[in-house]
Amino acid sequence: MSAVAIINPETSQISIEAELVFYGKYATEDLAQKIVLEINQMWNEPNAKLQLGSTLFDIVFDIKYTCLGNSEVLSKVLNNTEYAVNFIRIEDKNIAERSMMGFGLGENSGHWLITDQLGESTTAAHEFGHALGLPHPEQLDYRFSGNPPIMAPRGTIVDADFQWNPLAEAGAFGGTMRPIFRRVRSSEVLLVLRGLNPENLGILKIGKLTNQLFDEIGRPVALNKDLTFE
Ligand SMILES: [Zn+2]
Fold first, then answer.
1. Residue 86 has pLDDT above 60, yes or no
2. I need a surface site. Which of 42, 106, 123, 215 has the fewest CB within 10 A?
3. Quick check: 52 and 201 in contact, CB under 8 A?
4. Using CA atoms, how far apart are residues 191 and 176, in angstroms rounded to an integer?
5. 98 CA to middle of ligand 1, Å?
6. Whole-number pLDDT of residue 163
7. Ligand 1: centre distance to CA 201 (Å)
8. What is d(CA 5, CA 187) in angstroms, rounded to the nearest whole number?
């Protein structure tokens, strides 16, 4: 995901803004709304703050969406120079067999699967974190520290209450993190803003513009203006 962070000293607010452009067979208004709600709610939940100079800034996520047909998305991607804009195809399967955001961290193009319970679990918020350049944490054992962080991957060790099966032994079958229990931590919000230069405030561009479209099963499409895209 690419995004922009707008630093406003007058309101003491840093607002992280992005527009998710959804396309593909399952890119419905209803689903798009649920996904964006999940991302905004989860990333705003820790009420993260950042001290810059003498000002304590509130960090607020403001993510919006649009759903476009294939020909509209093609003309938008060919002309896109805005860091706030991301292109995400939604289908029921792909060659990676999981929701992905391009091939590296911070790309503004992805292919997500409805089978990942987008908007009903924590997957959309987790993918959003990858999209903003956050990797999985190196720490894979979050026992005795509350809910696991949003960037924790499947297989993470957690307190029994946060396991698939609270009765399973830690690390055994059923004894790993059930993703629904992940929560965004303030430290993860601050990681998103790690590129911020206190000497040079204004607008921070986050991520990179790959402006890539994917076909139905998640293969990158070579873009040119004559393309008819399905
Ligand atoms: Zn992940």
1. yes
2. 215
3. yes
4. 25
5. 10
6. 97
7. 30
8. 16
pLDDT of residue 225: 56
150 found inside a domain: no
Domain count, the chain: 1
Q: Would you say residue 115 lies in a domain?
A: yes
**Alpha-carbon distance values, 90 to 59, 60, 225 (Å):** 29, 26, 23
Q: Which of 217, 213, 225, 221 is nearest to 85 (CA)?
A: 213
Residue 126 Cα to ligand 1 middle (Å): 6
Using alpha carbons only, what angle is made at residue 33 by residues 30 and 34, rounded to the nearest 5 degrees? Answer: 90
Distance 90 CA to ligand 1 centre (A): 17
10 alpha carbon – ligand 1 mean position (Å): 36
* pLDDT tens-digit series, residues 12-43: 999 999 999 999 999 999 999 999 999 999 99
Boundaries of domain holding 124: 3-136+186-221
Domain presence at residue 125: yes
Is position 149 within any domain? no
Three-state secondary structure call for residue 98: coil
User: What CATH code is carried by the domain that includes residue 88?
Assistant: 3.40.390
